[in-house]
Request: fold
Amino acid sequence: MQTGYFYSLVFALLTSLSVAAIAGPAAPPEAARAPLVLDVDVKAKTAKVDLNLADAPTLQRELAGIGEAKAKSIVAYRESNGPFSSVEELLEVKGIGKAILDRNRDRLEVN
Reply:
């Protein structure tokens, strides 16, 4: 009788331990490992490019569809014709069409 009672207690103990092990998470969820804050420079994303001040690498980096050759063409046009009076004057630069201007209009300014 005593042995049966002892085995019942051991069985109950092992059963409760196995239920606790199954119920608890084995590893933290993926969301807990993800970074909570991303360090993003908001000013860099919202700052406009001044056509009269930007150098060729800046124009190439900040404007969509502007490669090295077009960026150099913009700077050369500015040096030979003076500062831009409006954003639309960019259409006078060889290789810059209406599509490129429309794609970048919100990123450009003339001061």
User: Anything to note?
Assistant: The longest strand covers residues 49-50. Residues 91 and 98 are 7 Å apart (CA to CA). The chain has a mean pLDDT of 84. The helical segments are 2-23, 30-33, 42-46, 56-62, 68-81, 98-104.
